[in-house]
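If you are new to this repository, start here. Below is one unmodified record pulled from the training split, so you can see the exact layout before writing a loader.
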Amino acid sequence: MQIAVASGKGGTGKTTIATNLALSLAPEGPLQFLDCDVEEPNAHLFLHPTLGEEEAVNMPVPVVDEGKCTACGRCAEVCAFNAIAVLAGHVLTFSELCHGCGGCVRLCPEKALEEEAKEIGIIQRGNRGNIAFVHGKLKIGSALAPPIVEAVREQARRDGLVIIDASPGTSCPVVAAVKDVDYCLLVTEPTPFGLHDLDLAVQMLAKLGLPAGVILNRAGEGDEMIEEYCREKGLPLHLKIPFDRRYAALYARGSSLVQEYPHWRGAFRDLMEDIEGRVGK
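And here is the target side for that same chain:
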């Protein structure tokens, strides 16, 4: 089973939930953790895996053969991302804008375009006990996170449990991280901003046809608005983690709830049983 942990906004505790779930379930058997927050991966700061193997992630970008090119402009016409322009009889390519779709190469009437690999990031693998760990890192200056996310998702095992830590928000990298999972946990906070962005995430998952539940972090004042929203939308509110300065302190130290407060281990195991019951696995 694949479980994604996402959030409508950053700073809600998404990675806290994902890593504590992994640490709670690891003693019961091997699992895999995929950190797909490739623009700012930080799950390794809490899981402390031993990182080893590293692999480059490349994207195809067009290169012009000046000897064949007639500057007809067909390539610029078909590019939806303005990554090609024709000026004064010359074709200019902007690899930072290219999405690697290959349309310009396929539709060039003179076959004057070829593709070459451009490195846009890396993936790294490692282990911590029963947890097989993979994360991706977008190269500084690269604009496209989805290819890195997809490269991390391709590392997913076909058997056993896979926990996916998605990027915050509802943009393309998040869609790439959560698509086709069995269940998605949405982490929110009891604030108007938290509620607003939770609703955006719920709408996104509805369009993808994915089942979801909610975890309320920093619970306390304002819980009612989240509880009422979950009732209206028919969403299960799986877990509430109270606002506590001690929890913030252990986060700052790179520790986890289940390590320093063992009673939370049972809560996360119960969460997993609830999810299994809902998805029938």
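Two things worth knowing about this chain: The chain has two domains: 2-57+120-279, 66-111. The CA atoms of residues 60 and 101 lie 8 Å apart.
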